[in-house]
Sequence to fold (85 residues):
Amino acid sequence: MSTITAILEPAADGTLHVPVPNELRNVKFKVVATPQQAVTNTSIAQSAEAERQRKLLVVMESISQSNPFEGIDPVEWQREVREDR
Fold:
């Protein structure tokens, strides 16, 4: 079973138009509509920023736990870098 999630704005005549993918155009739908509070562009941007920060935190924690520099001697590494010049 497929689920379509959409936030719709009523047309001038008060009707809602649901975009349906081509593969589902010959299928019957049960529609349940729930009115939502008005969402401003600012709250959308804040929500997107909060989600981006949450994802970034997950990635940073993952990198921290993997300890990518384990086993690297910084003094020896610096000597090798200087020899490359």
About this structure: The radius of gyration is 26 Å. Residues 41-66 form the longest helix (26 residues).
